[in-house]
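Per-record layout

source: Aegilops tauschii subsp. strangulata
name: tRNA pseudouridine synthase
length: 161
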Amino acid sequence: MQKAAFKFIGEHDFRNFCKMDAANVSNYKRYITDFNISACDQRSNHDELWSMNIRGSAFLWHQVRCMAAVLFFVGQGLESPCVVDSLLDITKTPRKPQYTMAPELPLILRSCLFDGVSFMCSSDASQALIEHLKDEHHQYMLQAAIFDEALTCLSIPGTYI
């Protein structure tokens, strides 16, 4: 997947990696400066949590979800990393193939940087956000514990349904 992710770096025409918005977009070229995939220290049963960190000058509508979907195909062995080259070459692949986008749930927009502009956040707003996220985390952990207990009650010892 990382080998395929590196192929996105640079300026490319990403029309095969977005939802078409021909009414509002005429230039599908975007510049990706960095794309790294790394393991996180979190697991759920046999599932691992991984992080895709993407930096670029701008993104098209659903571009990241489409890029992630293709990388998931590569990771599952359903495509080779070369598929990225083929999809970025609009003379070779002039129309976007039909594939399902990656789900939006795990995606997080961490930051936006603009030349000559700096954003400031008050300490009160920052603290309120931290408290909100801690509360949400606590609620989800509590829900997970409840579901885990329910599965324990319903399952044969040592297995999940």
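summary: The mean pLDDT is 90. Residues 121-156 form one domain.
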